[in-house]
Amino acid sequence: MLSDDELEAIRRRKMELLMERAKKAKEPKPEVREPLSKGYPIQLNDGNFWQTIQQTKVALVDFYGEWCQPCKMLAPIIQELAEEFKGKAVIAKIDIDRNPRVTGQFGVQSVPMVIVFKDGKPAGQLPGLRPYNQYDSVISQLL
To answer: Which of 31, 57, 92, 103 has its CA 20 to 30 A from that of 1?
Structure first.
């Protein structure tokens, strides 16, 4: 079993790798008008992901699969976050099966996987299903 320090080192290396992948990514830039949450999660895709993320101070993105039961359980939490952070942060979802390019850039291999962005860069990952207050806390700290 790995120690807490070893796990933290692995997480840190993973985040550095994800940030490098994100820097190398070249996405088409379709027009996105107002990315801030309007009280419901924004649906992202391979075409609008980076444009949306780069236009926001803080974004929480739920990587999900339609077939995933824990993802279905997370959906109401994501909805509630979108309502709470309306006008303050982007709360978004992206289907991993329909958007392999972005999913691959972040190495998402299991869902649900929530990645939080600050100023267009990955700021943290929250894998698996977690309670509402953990997501709320992370967003609040970044705002």
So the answer is: 103
